[in-house]
Amino acid sequence: MSVLINKDSKVIVQGFTGSEGTFHATQMIEYGTNVVGGVTPGKGGQFRLNKPIFNTVSDAVKETAADVTIIFVPPAFAADAIMEAADAGIKVIVCITEGIPTADMVKVKAYIADKQTRLIGPNCPGIITAEECKVGIMPGFIFKKGTVGIISKSGTLTYEAVDQITKSGLGQTTAIGIGGDPIIGTSTLDAVKLFEADPETKGIILIGEIGGSMEADAAYWIKDHGTKPVVAFIAGETAPKGKRMGHAGAIIGGANDTAQAKKQILRDCGVHVVDSPAELGKKMAELLK
Amino acid sequence: MNLHEYQAKEILKSYGVRIQEGKVAATPEEAVESAVELQKETGTGWWVVKAQIHAGGRGKGGGVKLAKNLDEVKDLSSKMIGMQLVTHQTGEEGKKVSKVLIAQDVYYPGESQVEEFYMSILLNRATGRYTVMYSTEGGMDIESVAEKTPHLIFKEEIDPKVGLMPFQTRKIAFNLGLSGDAFKEMTKFVAALYKAFEAIDASLFEINPVLKTSDNKILAVDAKVNLDDNALYRHPEIVALRDLAEEDPAEIEAGKYNLNFIKLNGNVGCMVNGAGLAMATMDIIKQSGGNPANFLDVGGSANATTVEAGFRIILKDPNVKAILLNIFGGIVRCDRVAQGVVDAYKSIGNISVPVIVRLQGTNAEEGALLINESGLKVKSAITLLEAADLVKSVV
């Protein structure tokens, strides 16, 4: 078991023939992901990396029975790409694209609300189920099959946690990069619920940052329903108020979305909060001993 | 991206939002000319001289003053233009005022009482919808209203499938206690405001105060407008309004290299790949006894050019006593980054502060070897703990 994706997932790549799309599709195939094709409007019928290219997501789904997509299209066209995938019945949509206008994402969120689909991202490194399936841009070699689920708003900070968890001998079930934008498809809480329901996941690592209330929402749910140990780190204790720290969503708006406030809420709800990301692996190893 | 009050008001007006009229001036002479013209156009008896800087709290800092005759317009403008205006949002050094807005006096007496309201449009991140937030308590700091009298703050969420509906604008006007002409004016005001918000891809509108005049007009006395940086490509006309003088020179320089840089006040500079890890690195610096001098995300392409640009920008700050480079190599190979560091170091020539390079991930060992054998005064680390200890040893 694992969450969202596994070795049976049939994956397509939107923006397949672009340099990013082709590069990461190659890496994904090398990791063992079952990439069944790609979509680039106007290039239908051609092949790339020995996989068929389709004009539309709907064609790709008809021909390949794809159930997962990864999106590498530029910001101006990404919202449209997400909606196309949702319309075609794709179950899991992973959007890597950074820089999508917020107004476009407001529309996307409303459009997919009543569809049977789950959006991960945008502005995220993707998802990976260790040693089975990678739908993302993370370095595959640092992952090892194991028992820890990882949820993170940040790319390189995820790798940091994964590396520590691998070196501690525990390994990961699945790592979900939920993304650093103000509007994302899968919240911290959504991801926590997925790992709570997964019997193979024994512990959860949660990496958050300043801005918004997602970590607090997850904390309150964990307090009432959580059965697995959760170790958390919140980045941005030293971030000044009102400045956007790289991620579009990483901005302190009030008193409740600072790193300090989030850590306090998490602690009050029984989550094991570490002050340095260097302690994530050690703490989880202690708890799962 | 932020706009000046005068720019924001011009945009609002073009979408049918009634505003306190005004003219911008860069010299006391221009200010007087503007005041004369404004009197002809609006019939205003007095004028308000308003300093144009990108910060709130201008009134309390002395950046908003009433002038009752043209001599006072000239006098107040000459004092304001060129001054360093300090508000609770500018920091101690304040911001230099280079322009003033000469605005009409809208608080004139008349048949009814003048009233001030608060109104903003912003994203509710929890629901993913834009929301109109408004209050009967205008003209005050909304954060203190939220703290003391939260029941006086109202919210109206907008369904993206249909947009702002007329029943919502009526609800807002009723909740603000309006009737008659002022009620009708308010419904139009809110509708026009939202139209402008959508049209320019704003991330925040804050109109404080929204004024009901003594003759029952509704207008924006102030306007804070922030744009969604991700949507600026759709609005070249707004990008043209960018005032570089309001931004930190180091941040502008970094932008040229596609580096995401924010200047802070500490003593340890840092350069990191990824925004989350960059924030975490700042936190680690603090925990090691230093203070971060900046936020710098070099993104996915840490190479000799970006590393060199990063070093140069960080080193412009005389407070920097050490630099921590923290890279987790995924797709980026650590040995390439290490080579970039060595090349940048040699190219700059005289880096006088200790540099700590922490490389982890793809080819980390090779990277460390390259650094250690370069003969440069660079300390290398592989784990975060080692990097933190090295920071401790230099601060």
Which keywords apply here?
heterodimer; A: 289 residues; alpha/beta; 9 helices; 14 strands; 34% helix; globular; B: 395 residues; alpha+beta; 4-stranded antiparallel sheet; 13 helices; 37% helix
Chain-wise SSE layout:
The complex is a heterodimer of chains A (289) and B (395).
Chain A: E1 11-14, H1 19-31, E2 35-39, E3 47-48, E4 51-54, H2 57-64, E5 68-71, H3 75-87, E6 92-95, H4 102-112, E7 118-120, E8 126-129, E9 133-136, E10 145-152, H5 155-167, E11 172-177, H6 188-196, E12 203-209, H7 214-225, E13 230-235, H8 259-268, E14 272-273, H9 280-287
Parallel strand pairs in A: 1-2, 1-5, 2-4, 5-6, 6-7, 10-11, 10-12, 12-13, 13-14
Antiparallel strand pairs in A: 3-4, 8-9, 8-11
Helix pairs in contact in A: 3-4, 5-9, 6-7, 7-8
Chain B: H1 5-14, E1 22-25, H2 28-42, E2 47-51, E3 64-67, H3 70-80, E4 84-85, E5 95-96, E6 100-104, E7 115-124, E8 129-135, H4 142-148, E9 153-157, H5 166-175, H6 180-199, E10 202-212, E11 218-220, E12 224-227, H7 236-239, H8 249-256, E13 260-263, E14 268-272, H9 275-287, E15 294-297, H10 304-315, E16 322-329, H11 334-348, E17 355-361, H12 364-372, E18 378-381, H13 384-394
Parallel strand pairs in B: 14-16, 16-17, 17-18
Antiparallel strand pairs in B: 1-6, 2-3, 2-6, 4-5, 7-8, 7-10, 8-9, 10-11, 10-12, 13-15
Helix pairs in contact in B: 2-3, 5-6, 10-11, 11-12
What does this molecule look like?
The complex is a heterodimer of chains A (289) and B (395). Chain A has helices spanning 19-31, 57-64, 75-87, 102-112, 155-167, 188-196, 214-225, 259-268, 280-287, and strands at 11-14, 35-39, 47-48, 51-54, 68-71, 92-95, 118-120, 126-129, 133-136, 145-152, 172-177, 203-209, 230-235, 272-273. With 289 residues, chain A is an alpha/beta fold. In chain A, the strands form 2 sheets. Chain A has a 7-stranded mixed β-sheet, with helices on both faces. Chain A has a 7-stranded mixed β-sheet with strand order 9-8-11-10-12-13-14, sandwiched between helices. In chain A, strand 12, helix 7 and strand 13 form a beta-alpha-beta unit. Chain A is globular, with a radius of gyration of 18 Å. The mean pLDDT of chain A is 95. In chain B, strands 7, 8, 9, 10, 11 and 12 form a 6-stranded antiparallel β-sheet that branches. In chain B, helix 2 packs across helix 3, helix 10 (304-315) crosses helix 11 (334-348) and helix 11 (334-348) runs parallel beside helix 12 (364-372). Chain B is of the alpha+beta class. The chains are: A alpha/beta (289), B alpha+beta (395).
